[in-house]
Amino acid sequence: MEPILIANELALARAHVAFPVVIELERRIPEWLIRLSTEPGVREFEAKYGVEMPDSLHHYYRSTRLICLLQAAWGVDVFLEDMNNDDPPGLEYWNTKPHVVIGYFPNGDTLCGAELTGDRQYMYWEGFSEGREPDTTLSEWVCNAASRLLP
């Protein structure tokens, strides 16, 4: 089973107990995130940017409770509310590859994103990943975060 699916199952099973605020965040999920949790929203994103969204990103965007858990308890804005972007999530090119923006770190005014190409969606952290070989996938990052956050 893919790590992101395991993390989602953990979040579904335990998030309401560990972090009641997650339920509140589910009530105010941004519209762009709701769109990307649906097939029509994914197709709209793909058409707009001329990319294909890999399965791991489909799983990520359909895992809204997991995303809310990360928003509630992690030091990253995955709702992208504090970011200066009128049309989130956005697309960035890092190391010449397209990445969908996954999170914004308001304290450092930096972004992180997941690669849209290849078999594994490696994460990129602005200001940290330059000149380095990627070593963490989106699924691994989310699963590790969920494992640390959930009892």
Major β-sheet profile: 4 strands, antiparallel
Q: Into which percentage range does the β-strand content fall?
A: 5-15%
Residues in helix, %: 40-55%
The overall strand count is: 4
Overall structural domain count: 1
Ends distance: 21 Å
By DSSP (H or I, 4+ residues per run), the number of helices equals 7
Return the string of H and E elements.
Answer: HHHHHHEEEEH
Structural class: alpha+beta
Please write out the topology:
Elements: H1 3-18, H2 21-26, H3 31-36, H4 39-49, H5 55-62, H6 64-73, E1 91-94, E2 97-105, E3 110-115, E4 123-125, H7 138-149
Antiparallel strand pairs: 1-2, 2-3, 3-4
Briefly say what this structure is.
By secondary structure, this protein is α+β, with helices and mostly antiparallel strands. It has 7 helices and 4 strands; from the N terminus they run H-H-H-H-H-H-E-E-E-E-H.
